[in-house]
Design goal:
This protein has 2 domains: 7-92, TusA-like domain (Translation Initiation Factor IF3, 2-Layer Sandwich), CATH 3.30.110.40; 98-204, Hypothetical Protein Ychn, Chain: A (3-Layer(aba) Sandwich), CATH 3.40.1260.10. It is 33% helix and 24% strand. The protein is built from 6 helices and 11 strands. It is elongated.
């Protein structure tokens, strides 16, 4: 078996961005440790390697069968070998000054099915981002993401817990008949949303 070092991040069976996100969680909480991330596909291998290099780590890769062992070493420091359950690491959040305007319940243009899958990954990435948006407004079909049974609720609740202001357009909720099903954030109005758009740094999606 390959000799692993430092903190072990075993994400075999997972596709990106999860391997990068879980590696990042450990980097954020244990910046002085050697980290070995184990993946079982080339895309995750390449993305974890790029992430490590971008953070200033020296990255070496060993392969056993279909598994890749990426060892991230911070500079030339010496480290003791340890194994840590990454579930015990707590992420610290920082809220920035950006406002997100979500205009639909899928991401991008073209295939709506693909866009809905991309939206799931997008919220996961926002939750794990070093800097969170200040506010997220939901209008039109995007309001469906804040109601009961939405596949995005867990991530949106994590963002709300981190201090992100989440607000859905009341007119839009009424239109889709889901005003009584809002399960995260608050209900706002178009005047408040417009005022924010005129005075703050907004990203429209």
């Amino acid at each position: 078996m390959n000799s692993t070092k430092g903190i072990i991040v075993d994400v075999r069976g997972s596709l990106c961005p999860k391997p990068v996100i879980e590696t990042k969680q450990v980097v954020d909480k244990a910046p002085g440790e050697v980290i070995t991330t184990i993946v079982d596909n080339e895309v995750s291998r390449d993305n974890v390697e790029k992430f490590g290099v971008s953070k200033g780590y020296s990255v070496t890769i060993a392969q056993e069968g279909k598994d890749f062992y990426l060892t991230l070493v911070p500079g030339d420091m010496n480290h003791n070998d340890v194994t840590v359950n990454i579930d015990t690491l707590q992420e610290s959040a920082h809220v920035g000054n950006r406002v997100l305007l979500m205009t639909k319940d899928y991401l991008g243009e073209g295939s709506e099915e693909l866009g809905r899958n991309l939206m799931k990954t997008f919220w996961t990435c926002v939750v794990e981002a070093d800097v969170k948006p200040k506010t997220i407004y939901f209008i039109n079909s995007a309001v469906k993401m804040v109601v009961t049974d939405s596949v995005h609720l867990d991530n949106l609740k994590e963002l709300a817990k981190a201090g992100v202001d989440i607000a859905a357009c009341g007119i839009c909720l009424d239109y889709y008949g889901v005003k009584d099903q809002v399960d995260v954030g608050t209900i706002t109005n178009l005047y408040a949303i417009t005022d924010s758009l005129m005075n703050e740094a907004v990203v429209k999606l």
